[in-house]
Amino acid sequence: MKLKNIYLLIFPALVFMSSCIYEDGPKMSFRSKKARVVNSWYIDKAYEAGVDKTDAYKSAFVNYKLDLKTDDNYSLNYKAYNLLDYSEKGTWKLSDDNLYIVFKPNNTTQENKSKILRLKNHEAWVIVNVNNKDVELHLRD
Fold this sequence. Notes:
Blueprint (H helix, E strand, L loop, with lengths): L2 H15 L15 H5 L1 E10 L2 E2 L1 H7 E8 L4 E8 L3 E11 L5 E6 L6 E8 L3 E8 L2 E8 L1
Antiparallel strand pairs: 1-2, 1-3, 1-9, 3-4, 4-5, 5-6, 6-7, 7-8, 8-9
């Protein structure tokens, strides 16, 4: 086999193997990070300091839905404690190192970051700050 053919086989494998930088994977993906982020996300599990708090978060954020769109806009909707409707819109982007999703709500200069731990096509694990506590959210589509 010619050296050129070997490079053609090895180069794509190296690119795909280095495409994931997240603690919990995946090890390899054929979709870009942005393509994997763009989705409608719902809370599947929630953990505070390793303790399962899923029921508490699903009660506090009823019908939680985070829509990340290809045009870099997002919307977040839920019903707080099943009493008050909450809605937020703004823009989102991946940080330069692709380790965070950065949210900028409309009509504010504040940015909120979510650290990405796992990013698959139908599953994402992120760390968010809720009431000054780091919470690990497992999201699904």
